[in-house]
Amino acid sequence: MEDVVVDEGGIRLGQFLKLAGLAESGADAKGLLSAGLVSVNDQGESRRGRQLERGDVVRCAGRAVRVA
After folding, report:
1. Which of 19, 45, 47, 53 is 20 to 30 A from 27, alpha carbon to alpha carbon?
2. Whether 63 contacts 22, CB under 8 Å
3. What number of other Cβ atoms are within 10 A of residue 67's Cβ?
4. Which InterPro entries match (predicted)?
5. Rounded CA gap, 5 and 46, in Å?
């Protein structure tokens, strides 16, 4: 599992997908979410604006990335 460091205030899921290299653009992130290909803490997620906190684990395309 990879760790991706974010600012203390947290980050929105759509932004995190781009930062972690799971999506190339906001439109790509939106497509992944609407197709049901993203989960947060092992629960399916479709909201691009979901606020992530340290310790959350995002899974997409066979990769697991933790917010650090």
Report:
1. 53
2. yes
3. 21
4. S4_RNA-bd_sf
5. 22
Question: Residue ranges of the domains in the chain?
Answer: 2-67
Contacts for 19 with CB less than 8 Å, ≥ 6 apart:
4, 6, 11
CATH fold of 2-67, please? Answer: 3.10.290
Other residues' Cβ atoms within 10 Å of the Cβ of residue 17: 26
**Strand order across the beta sheet in which 43-44 lies:** 2-4, 63-67, 57-60, 38-40, 43-44
Q: 20-43 pLDDT, tens per residue?
A: 999 999 999 999 999 999 999 999
Average pLDDT over residues 50-57: 96
Q: How far apart are CA 6 and CA 20, in angstroms?
A: 10
Measured CA to CA in angstroms, residue 34 lies from 19, 37, 39 at distances of 19, 8, 11
